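Page 42, continued from yesterday. The earlier attempt failed because a stray header line got pasted into the input along with the sequence. Redoing it now with the clean sequence only.
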Amino acid sequence: MAEHIDVVAKLLQRDQIDPALLRRNLVVSGINLQALRHQQIQIGEAIFELTAQCHPCNRMEEALGPGGTAAMLMHGGLCAKVIQSGEIRVGDAVVPMLEKGEEQLGLF
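This time it went through. Structure tokens are written below.
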């Protein structure tokens, strides 16, 4: 999440961090992905199942410098399984895939 990247930047006393340094495939904002863990989401035409937390590895020390791994703890985002591939565009919404009859419970 973009918000977590901002936190990591502050922890490392930087103005900003390029998400590519963090090995992100997708960066989203404005949604609590942790609340959707083990559920499916749709972004554009693609559907993903949010699986495990993505814990930082020692590459964060190389990419961000000393303290990089520690700064990334609990800010690593989630891993996801691709259920359906499809086109994603910048600005596409993250949409929780609800089961039939299930109501959205204010996760945003």
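Notes: The first strand starts at residue 40 and ends at 43.
Reminder to self: strip header lines before submitting.
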